[in-house]
């Protein structure tokens, strides 16, 4: 996709979010997280130049190579980590990201807290819920989400919401509704919905939607290693 195409696609998504909010009768806020994983900095820059400031990456190592230079040009970027975090990458993640959406177990909460003490900054955090109970997917079981929120907060993590990715082969609506119910019980907002289903996520109250391919086009293949 061309630079002009990225900016145009971003505008289309922004209008679509506004339309979905209107259709849902919502007057609160939905933040768009532009998912830039696998895209080179030059491909991402047009979205930043068009005013997009909340961006998401899946891998700490990729973000380390891409975002320090972009942040010099766009210092008000809010960078979200969306993918799974390994304990040995916690220090790098805490130093780089403003929000970590993938706190999926107590061990990772502990690693973030320890890294925050060492680095001297604490990112805001979301608890990832395995809303579809998929064995291959990270996240707390729905019934364990409240306990993980409590444990993370006891460690000093500022927990600002719940995040989930519904099963790819099932209608997302029931899973969005289930996450919203859990989040409402905890007084927290939700991060849910991607390029194919963010409008439905908004209808179910999503506070953040994570959209990549609808803005940046088809993803380039991930390099081996």
Structural class: alpha/beta
Mean pLDDT: 95
CATH superfamily: Alanine racemase
CATH class: Alpha Beta
Distance between the termini: 26 Å
Explain how this protein is built:
This protein is an alpha/beta fold. It has a single domain, classed as TIM Barrel. It is built from 9 helices and 8 strands. β2 (54-57), α3 (60-73) and β3 form a beta-alpha-beta unit. α1 crosses α2. The longest helix has 21 residues, at 3-23. The chain is globular.
Structure described in brief:
By secondary structure, this protein is α/β, with parallel strands linked by helices.
List keywords for this structure.
single chain, 225 residues, alpha/beta, TIM Barrel, 9 helices, globular
What topology does this entry show?
Elements: H1 3-23, E1 31-35, H2 41-49, E2 54-57, H3 60-73, E3 78-81, H4 90-96, E4 99-103, H5 106-119, E5 124-128, H6 145-154, E6 159-163, H7 173-186, E7 190-191, H8 198-203, E8 208-211, H9 213-216
Parallel strand pairs: 1-2, 1-8, 2-3, 3-4, 4-5, 5-6, 6-7
């Amino acid at each position: 996709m061309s630079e002009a195409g990225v900016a145009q696609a971003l505008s289309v998504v922004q209008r679509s979010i506004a339309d979905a909010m209107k259709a849902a009768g919502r007057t609160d806020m939905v933040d768009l997280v532009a998912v830039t994983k696998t895209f080179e900095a030059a491909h991402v820059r047009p979205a930043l130049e068009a005013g997009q400031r909340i961006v998401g990456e899946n891998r700490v190592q990729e973000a380390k190579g891409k975002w320090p230079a972009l942040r010099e040009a766009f210092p008000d970027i809010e960078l979200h980590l969306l993918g799974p975090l390994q304990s040995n990458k916690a220090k790098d993640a805490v130093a780089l990201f403003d929000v970590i959406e993938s706190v999926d177990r107590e061990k990772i909460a502990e690693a973030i807290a320890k890294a925050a003490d060492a680095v001297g900054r604490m990112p805001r955090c979301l608890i990832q819920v395995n809303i579809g109970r998929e064995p291959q997917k990270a996240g707390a079981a729905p019934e364990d989400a409240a306990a993980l929120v409590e444990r993370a907060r006891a460690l000093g993590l500022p927990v600002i919401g719940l995040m989930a990715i519904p099963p790819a082969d099932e209608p997302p609506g029931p899973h969005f509704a289930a996450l919203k119910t859990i989040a409402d019980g905890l007084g927290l907002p939700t991060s849910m919905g991607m390029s194919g289903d963010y409008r439905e996520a908004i209808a179910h109250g999503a506070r953040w939607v994570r959209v990549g391919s609808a803005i940046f086009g088809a993803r380039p293949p991930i390099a081996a290693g």
